[in-house]
Amino acid sequence: MDPTTVEAAIKVYLTEMRSRLEKATSIARAAEACALSGNVEKGIEIVLNIEQITYEVNTFLNAASMIHRLGSS
After folding, report:
1. For residue range 4-14, what is the model confidence (pLDDT) as tens digits?
2. Helix crossing, 3-36 with 50-72: angle to 10°?
3. Which residue from 28, 40, 43, 47 has the least number of CB within 10 angstroms?
4. How far apart are CA 43 and CA 33, in angstroms?
């Protein structure tokens, strides 16, 4: 694989991962605030919104890892 293409793709994946992880952090903070204020059930309801985000981040991580390995060979 062309090193320039590998680098560009990995940069995009890392940016997407950071963006999603920042969103997940915001959601986790909101869930924590609910729980700390005594509304644990609402905290759980909110934090479950992270599930899709973590799936997407894991997919980007796998893609970046695979492209990196392909670019190294």
Report:
1. 999 999 999 99
2. 160
3. 40
4. 7
Quick one: tokens of 40?
């644990």
Give the pair of three-digit tokens for residue 42: 């609402």
- What are 69's two structure tokens? 């390995």
Q: What is the pLDDT of residues 19-47, one digit of tens each?
A: 999 999 999 999 999 999 999 999 999 99
What ranges make up the beta strands (E) of the chain? none
Contact 10, 63 (CB under 8 A): no
Six token digits for residue 53:
């985000």
Question: Largest Cα–Cα distance in the chain?
Answer: 54
Query: pTM for the whole thing?
Result: 0.86
Q: What mean pLDDT is predicted for residues 51-62?
A: 97
Closest C-alpha to 6, from 73, 59, 70: 70
